[in-house]
């Protein structure tokens, strides 16, 4: 993960704007193809990615590897929460504050990345540190400690 793919205090109106902003950053760096953003938005309609992990809600939008050139993760800490549908119960909505947009070009590595992300989600203190970070470099260092 590089600090150019991190947006702190991002002000957006909805999940679509978050995905577009982070996806644009990935596209500009060459990590994803021009089809990536639309593919993520389309997938989110049928396979939502919001997670209520207790003290805060996160989302991990992603799509098929055919839209990805090189694996990476973009992250947004939102100024105000936006609504995502719940991954476990799509009839429910969650107010998300932290979004990890995943670009995975090797489906076999998806399990490893999701496992690392789950360790972030289970560490409430780490999530709070990410949320309150004042610089993208600080967030990068926090995530590097767990191999993201």
Automatic annotation (TrEMBL):
<dbReference type="InterPro" id="IPR002178">
    <property type="entry name" value="PTS_EIIA_type-2_dom"/>
</dbReference>
<dbReference type="Pfam" id="PF00359">
    <property type="entry name" value="PTS_EIIA_2"/>
</dbReference>
<dbReference type="InterPro" id="IPR016152">
    <property type="entry name" value="PTrfase/Anion_transptr"/>
</dbReference>
<dbReference type="InterPro" id="IPR051541">
    <property type="entry name" value="PTS_SugarTrans_NitroReg"/>
</dbReference>
<feature type="domain" description="PTS EIIA type-2">
    <location>
        <begin position="1"/>
        <end position="146"/>
    </location>
</feature>
<protein>
    <submittedName>
        <fullName>PTS fructose transporter subunit IIA</fullName>
    </submittedName>
</protein>
């Amino acid at each position: 993960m590089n600090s150019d793919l991190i947006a702190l205090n991002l002000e957006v109106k909805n999940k679509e704007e978050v995905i577009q902003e982070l996806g644009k950053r990935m596209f500009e760096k060459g990590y994803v193809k021009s089809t990536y953003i639309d593919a993520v938005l389309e997938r989110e309609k049928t396979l939502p990615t919001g997670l209520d992990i207790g003290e805060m809600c996160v989302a991990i939008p992603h799509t098929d590897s055919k839209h990805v050139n090189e694996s990476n993760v973009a992250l947004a800490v939102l100024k105000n929460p936006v609504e995502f549908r719940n991954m476990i119960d799509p009839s429910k909505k969650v107010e998300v504050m932290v979004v990890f947009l995943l670009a995975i070009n090797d489906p076999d590595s998806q399990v490893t990345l999701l496992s690392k992300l789950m360790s972030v989600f289970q560490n409430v203190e780490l999530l709070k540190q990410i949320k309150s970070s004042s610089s993208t470099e600080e967030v990068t260092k926090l995530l590097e400690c767990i191999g993201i």
